[in-house]
Design a protein that fits this description.
This protein has 916 residues and is α+β, with helices and mostly antiparallel strands. The protein is built from 26 helices and 33 strands. The protein is 34% helix and 18% strand.
């Protein structure tokens, strides 16, 4: 997103001007002033330091209305420069999205609406270390942004403008502006006008490009349009505002997102603080509210240490003190844990300026920033009392839920117990050894494994205690709710029964019980995950939690964030951060996964050998597949070479050569260069005997390898090379879409490998490969055909896989039809045959079993429903049908046989297989 920082002076809520020349004097020590043909003074900084550029709004006679930093770099240089401007001119700094504001004097000098609108409030600081402190938040991953090059009228400035994403084929640039109306005044609006003017100059220098400015706040967009112009805009630009806000929805605030990792890490940090306070300073900090006075004492000691280290230096010369930040992190965890346990809340994160900040959100809806509270207490001294802060929360934000019944605060812990990390105090969990722990990875798919466990528990219901069943409802319900929360593209949050009904009328149909003790609140609904996981009575079969989650999520299952991009051109660049396979967990208990399959799903893992395998060494694989599916372990593999047909849609499975580490130590990025070096041995005759053996094998293409050692000249890590069969139905889109994938190997099947069926791949990996469309458009019920009407429409019937994108699907059909046409245009034999145009009939082919079964079904039920083609052995079946028969022919194909039908008379209609 485009971020802007503003430095302005305020007195009693009104903006004041800064001494222009003195401001320039400060900025000149950090950057180079320069001017374009119009607009305000720009400051150019060193590359990747302080900001992309700065602006000084105003002039010498009138003074500077504000200083702006465009796309700041939150480094030490920026902190020291901003702090110098703040202290020298008694100014405040805030970002245009109003994440946080900083002052060195009184907070109430700022306009009260501006201060109230800041997500993290107004922070009073006494050191540059307190400006966007490092170590107290998670920094965003480094990412490049698209840039548009142009001839900058400012000779001191850079010759490019940055954007947030780009649609290169449409030459469409995008800039996200999160500016809030409350941050807008004459000075800040003129700074934004300067930004738009620079973009406009770049657009004029690159004809054909256009830009969209995406505003979160329509009022900010309106204020900008109504503000005085600096110059007329000449490029193509569009202002985009959210429609739901225009229709009256409230402006969205930065969302609090619960975080289980921070729940556990902060509990540990709180314990460490008590231990280190005792060891290093002899201070005993009791848990809970009783320990806050001692915590204040500890922070006073650290404050005096900070003052002593500063010595005679002024605050503006402070360097980042990692030790103080470490103490602030530990103390913040202690403060947050006290709030969570004693007042009622949940650990999570709020993202400001792309940084994720640890936050405790109380059950009454108040966001607390414990790390910042602790750090400000250390830096500022006793005026920032921690005990006073928490006392105020206890009076105004305490949850009505009894402290010993706060389920929402401990959801991560309850899920942890389900996964085998600890025990419930009373009754435990039923059949704990049967819990499919390794499959419970919080994916939607993992709920199928939870369903299998719940069914097992239900089958032994008579032998289970009441306490065990209550624990099961809590644990399974917490897990189900977390799956929904973590996989939704919308925002969901947990709340307790008492907290929910404290602000709503009581519901006589919903009394408090283990099934209703915690609710999950989503967009327009409140759900009861514990009730959904209650396995009920003996006569009632358990409901599928997987199906329930899909119903709750609807079409709002989250996907990796991406903006449409394509290849860069000399005028504009792009950045793309694909999910790294190193971050994906491929630890899968394959035996449990296979055992959880329903009887009708078993065909998915059963592989029938093609006829040619009988005379091929790969027949060994079909003997080993059952063992791999029962006792295999998962490691990464990388492709060395494969049949070209595997990279395109098609019906046949084919062999490929792979490289893998049998110990599972190497990741795809480490295997890739080694696989490439092996491929380069093809068609060579190396002197090294190990390399020569690999080279001969790859060159021949018909030999097979089962755990052939990789030459030591290429890798000394004990890597192996094997031939495997690429089983298309085990790939997400039934073709090779990337060079790496997880495989199953076993010490009992030396050298044999099979691709891990993609049903059990990490979701992010499957989506990188591309998933076939699972949903089909709704169609009318099947009606009997009109067998006597004139047949006037052509339908093309195709077996799976068919590309999910409609344009790609039609292109794929064109390829099939071209191959079919080429076969019928047989070669003309001899000179006389060519002269007379005589053609040989193509050789006959055996009917495709699926096509033959499909046509046989229709012919038996309704003879004459369609014209039967002579050749049923091709890749596409072209049928001539009557208009009144189309529905029957199509629905029989897609519902009963999983076939795709293209309507040749309407080139925008594809009837895809019905969902099973």
């Amino acid at each position: 997103m485009a971020v802007h920082l503003f430095i302005q002076k305020y007195s009693r809520g009104k903006p004041q001007t800064l001494p222009y020349d003195q401001v320039i004097e400060v900025l000149r020590r950090h950057g180079t002033p320069g001017r374009g043909p119009v607009g305000d003074l720009e400051i150019t900084f060193a590359p990747d330091q302080i900001a992309h550029y700065g602006l000084v709004i105003g002039d010498a006679p009138q003074g500077a209305q504000c200083v702006a930093f465009i796309r700041p770099v939150f480094d030490q240089n920026l902190r020291h420069l901003v702090y110098e401007l703040m202290t020298r001119f008694d100014a405040a700094v805030f970002d245009d999205a109003l994440g946080c504001a900083y002052v060195t004097g009184e907070r109430d000098e700022l306009p009260s609406p501006l201060g109230a609108a800041c997500t993290a409030g107004v922070q009073r600081i006494s050191s540059p270390q307190q400006l966007w402190p490092t170590g107290l938040s998670l920094s965003p991953p480094a990412r490049e942004r698209p840039a548009l090059r142009y001839q900058n009228p400012n000779p001191q400035g850079f010759n490019f403008v940055l954007f947030d994403w780009v649609e290169m084929e449409q030459r469409h640039l995008h800039m996200a502006l999160h500016t809030r109306a409350t941050a807008c005044n004459a000075g800040t609006l003129r700074a934004l006008r300067n930004v738009l003017l620079k973009v406009d100059t770049a657009l004029v220098g690159n004809p054909g490009f256009h830009v969209s400015y995406h505003f979160d706040d329509p009022e900010a967009n309106l204020l900008l349009l109504e503000s005085p112009k600096i110059a007329e805009m000449r490029g193509r630009a569009t202002m985009v505002v959210p429609g739901e806000v225009m229709l009256g929805e409230p402006l969205p605030e930065p969302a609090f997102v619960a975080n289980a990792d921070w729940y556990f890490s902060n509990k540990q940090k709180a314990t460490e603080l008590c231990q280190q306070a005792q060891t290093a300073h002899g201070i005993t900090i009791a848990p809970g509210l009783a320990g806050l006075a001692a915590l204040d004492t500890l922070l006073d000691v650290l404050h005096r240490k900070h003052l002593q280290q500063r010595g005679n230096r002024v605050a503006g010369e402070d360097a980042d003190d990692e030790d103080l930040q470490r103490w602030a992190s530990l103390a913040g965890a202690c403060i947050g844990e006290t709030i969570r346990r004693e007042i009622g809340g949940q650990w999570g994160a709020i993202t400001l300026l792309d940084h994720k900040h640890p936050v405790v959100r109380t059950h009454t809806g108040r966001n607390c920033w414990p790390y910042l509270i602790a750090f400000n207490r250390i830096m500022n001294g006793a005026g920032e009392s921690v005990a006073g802060y928490v006392d105020e929360l206890a009076c105004n934000a305490r949850s009505p839920t009894p402290r010993n019944a706060d389920i929402a605060a401990d959801i991560p812990l309850i899920c942890h117990l389900l996964l085998g990390h600890g025990q419930f105090n009373k009754g435990g969990l039923p059949l704990q050894a049967k819990i499919p722990v390794k499959q419970l990875d919080f994916s939607v798919r993992s709920l199928q494994s939870l369903d299998a466990y719940l069914a097992t528990a239900h089958a032994q219901l008579e032998s289970l205690t009441r306490d065990a069943l209550s624990n099961l409802a809590l644990a399974a319900g917490a897990y189900l709710g977390e799956v929904v929360r973590r996989n939704s593209s919308k925002h969901w949050h947990w709340t307790n029964y008492e907290d929910f009904f404290s602000t709503r009328p009581a519901d006589p149909n919903v009394s408090k019980s283990v099934n209703t003790c915690a609710l999950l609140i989503g967009p327009g609904m409140a759900i009861l995950p514990m009730q959904a996981c209650n396995i009920g009575g003996l006569e009632t079969p358990p409901q599928s939690v997987h199906a329930q989650a899909l119903e709750w999520l609807g079409n709002d299952i989250s996907k990796p964030e991406a903006h449409p991009e394509s290849a860069a051109t000399p005028a504009a660049g792009r950045a793309h951060d694909p999910a790294s396979p190193q971050t994906l967990d491929i630890n899968v208990d394959i035996a449990t996964c296979v055992a959880a399959l329903k009887p009708e799903e078993r065909a998915y893992v059963q592989v029938q050998p093609p006829p040619w395998v009988a005379a091929d060494e790969l027949r060994q694989l079909f003997d080993d597949y059952p063992k791999l599916l029962q006792q295999g372990r998962v490691v990464w593999a990388h492709l060395i070479q494969a049949n070209n047909s595997l990279f395109e849609p098609g019906p046949n499975d084919s062999p490929a050569e792979i490289l893998y580490d049998p110990h599972g130590r190497l990741q795809p990025a480490e295997l890739a260069p080694l696989a490439h070096r092996l491929y380069l041995l093809k068609n060579t005759k190396p002197a090294d005997p190990e390399e020569a053996r690999i080279a001969e094998h790859l060159t021949g293409e018909m030999t097979r390898a089962f755990g052939m050692p990789v030459p030591r000249t290429i890798s000394g890590a004990g890597l192996l090379e094997s031939t495997l069969l690429i089983i298309r139905k085990h790939l997400p889109n039934r073709r090779l879409a990337a060079g790496y994938f997880p495989i199953l190997i076993s010490d009992a099947c030396k050298g044999s490998a099979m691709i891990l069926p993609s049903r059990w791949w990490p979701r992010a990996l499957a989506e990188q490969w591309g998933l076939e469309a699972e949903q089909a458009p709704r169609v009318a019920p099947v009606t009997p055909p009109d067998v006597h009407a004139e047949k006037d429409q052509i339908l093309h019937v195709v077996k799976p896989p068919v590309p999910g994108d409609d344009d790609a699907a039609w292109a794929y059909l064109d390829q099939l039809l071209e191959r079919a046409e080429a076969r019928h245009l047989a070669q003309k034999k001899g000179f006389l045959g060519k002269l007379l145009g005589r053609k040989e009939a193509p050789p006959a082919r055996l009917p495709d079993p699926l096509f033959a079964k499909y046509l046989g079904r229709m012919s038996q039920a309704y003879p004459g429903a369609c014209e039967l083609p002579e050749d049923l052995g091709g890749e596409v079946l072209s049928l001539l049908v009557a208009t009144g028969s189309v529905n029957y022919v199509v629905e029989t194909a897609r519902r009963e046989f999983g076939l795709t039908v293209f309507d040749a008379n309407h080139f925008n209609i594809i009837y895809r297989p019905a969902a099973k």
